[in-house]
Design goal:
The protein is of the alpha+beta class. It folds into two domains: about 5-270, no CATH class; about 290-420, Nuclear Transport Factor 2, Chain: A (Roll), CATH 3.10.450. About 45% of the residues lie in helices and about 10% in strands. It contains 17 helices and seven strands. The strands form two sheets. A five-stranded antiparallel β-sheet has the order 3-4-5-6-7, with helices on both faces. Strands 1-2 form a two-stranded antiparallel ribbon. α9 packs parallel to α12. The longest helix has 25 residues, at about 235-260.
């Protein structure tokens, strides 16, 4: 990691000197993609005009992403926020250019986490690591606490999740609190920026032994866990706990990637196919628009998520747990394997469904849709309808999120009934 990059004043900065990548442009994958774009540009005339990827658009988007990452770290890095892989680049770029300086940018950044549906989607995207999947039930409880404003509980849960996850992730058993900053440099990841995870970790492990009841706004793990910091129950620290969890997951993925042998150099045909796929995904994301459709609108009958929801709920009324399992997100099904129908039965058998109504579908992101329904549970009065929200993710063949304008399948990722059914003591409505 001895790459050199021009600093903001034009001077040369050694990555090793600053303890991470001086710029997102220094990431090996970015450098490789830029090289591939130059090679592909030189040979673009060999392909038919209609089959050529938009290389200029890919280059502009890559530059936009890198500039956004670097600006983020200039503005919010000193406040110990970390740019992680599944943040919305355009939303980050917008908040960084708004008036009000770092304070306003921080407030707007926190708002990205308080969007509970967006946060739930990000949580779905990090559950592929075994050591993290084991802790999903704790993460979901932290999600509930965060939404309810129980920040103290959310913070403690996420601190325990991070410590346990990092301790189990590698052969050398050391929790996150036992790692030094230099242990958290992430190869080929935006969290490996010199103002990223390793920099923020310095406050995480900072000793805080003296009792202090002044408000704190940093994720001081030592002082929080050991009871010397008494006034940390606020949205800033809780959001930093979420931000740090996502950053630690990126570090873990980067660690695995660094240990993986590099793939052979792609042929020009493979390179062209890769760039064409990247261009196709970029165009699909750009073409997508948020939209909401109600059951009384003509377009409702064309909504795939409405149909998927109806089929899932019909299977529930029939107690067909195998068919219900087929609609659940692929990473979750991969985790349980052949036992997935049994898992569904365990959670749904004592909640029989007698009837339902699909009310609206709300496409909130290129690969995410929320479907509002009203449920009639068999053990409730006939006129008792419970409002519920089902969250769907559009997945490709590998179970990764993909824009709904591209081939894929809608899958349910908040699938456990307690995740979308309110507490049974809450009253429903009868206006179905």
């Amino acid at each position: 990691m001895g790459n050199r990059s021009a600093g903001s004043n034009g001077t040369s900065i050694t990555v090793r000197d600053v303890g991470g990548y001086a710029s997102a442009l220094d990431l090996p994958s970015v450098r490789q993609l830029r090289k591939q774009l130059r090679e592909a540009r030189a040979l673009r005339f060999l392909a038919p005009r209609g089959q050529r990827p938009d290389l200029a658009a890919i280059k502009r988007q890559l530059q936009h992403i890198c500039e956004t990452v670097d600006t983020f770290y200039q503005v919010l890095g000193p406040r110990n926020w970390v740019f992680h892989e599944n943040l919305p680049v355009d939303a980050i770029a917008e908040l960084l250019t708004s008036d009000g300086g770092p304070e306003a940018a921080e407030k707007a950044f926190i708002a990205l986490y308080t969007d509970q549906d967006a946060l739930a989607l990000r949580l779905q995207m990090i559950n592929k690591l075994s050591a993290l999947r084991k802790r999903q039930h704790l993460i979901l409880k932290a999600h509930e606490d965060y939404a309810a404003g129980r920040y103290y509980a959310c913070i403690h849960l996420l601190l325990s999740v991070m410590d346990g996850f990092v301790n189990e992730f590698e052969t050398v058993r050391r929790g996150l609190h036992a790692r030094q900053a230099e242990d958290l440099h992430a190869w080929d990841s935006v969290v490996g920026h010199h103002m990223g995870l390793a920099n923020a970790h310095k406050t995480f492990i900072k000793g805080k032994s003296a009792t202090n009841d002044e408000p704190v706004y940093e994720l001081y793990r030592n002082g929080i866990v050991h009871g010397s910091l008494l006034n940390y129950d606020n949205i800033v620290v809780a959001t930093k706990a979420w931000n740090r969890l996502f950053a630690v997951v990126d570090w873990a993925n980067a660690t695995l990637k660094e240990k993986t042998p590099p793939p052979p150099r792609p042929t020009m045909r493979q390179l062209w196919q890769s760039l064409s796929e990247l261009s196709r995904q970029q165009q699909a994301n750009a073409a997508w628009k948020p939209h909401r459709v109600s059951a009384d609108q003509a377009a409702f009958g064309q909504e795939e998520t409405a149909s998927a929801t109806e089929q899932f709920l019909v299977a529930w009324t029939q107690r067909n747990y195998g068919r219900m399992a087929q609609w659940i997100s692929q990473p979750i099904r991969d985790k349980h394997g052949a036992a997935m129908p049994r898992e569904v039965r365990m959670l749904y058998a004592d909640r029989p469904l007698s009837a339902f109504t699909v009310v609206t579908v709300d496409h909130i992101a290129p690969a995410s849709c929320i479907v509002e329904v009203k449920l009639h549970l068999a053990d409730q009065p006939d006129d008792h309808a419970i409002p519920a929200t089902l969250r769907w993710l559009h997945e490709d063949d590998q179970g990764d999120p993909v824009a709904s304008l591209l081939p894929g399948q809608w899958r349910l990722f908040c699938w456990e009934p307690h995740q979308f059914i309110p507490h049974p003591d809450l009253k429903g409505s009868s206006d179905v």
